[in-house]
């Protein structure tokens, strides 16, 4: 059986710099590849990879570009609040057992961060 080992969301933007700076400075992603002439940057944190791709007509999902599971959603939420991050959906406890929130990053994309909650009802 073939195993899928990774997932990398592609985030289309008009300008690489603000998005890459935000991901690295605010969310502590590490820059793996930076090819501004090609319009590409790859960033990684732990097991999560994101590609930031420059395009003349960037597209942004109406919901979220991805859902990133974390080990301490409350701490990350507090960090994002302290950094003045644009939180578009506050910390929410869902009846299906997830606790999460959604941010908007430079370039307009939205990323959700969450974890399984103690309340696993539903």
From TrEMBL:
Instruction: Give the coiled coil ranges.
Output: none
UniProt cross-references to InterPro entries, sorted A to Z = Glyas_Bleomycin-R_OHBP_Dase (IPR029068), Glyas_Fos-R_dOase_dom (IPR004360), VOC_core (IPR037523)
**SUPFAM superfamilies the record matches:** Glyoxalase/Bleomycin resistance protein/Dihydroxybiphenyl dioxygenase
Ranges of residues in domain VOC:
3-116
Q: What is this protein called?
A: VOC domain-containing protein
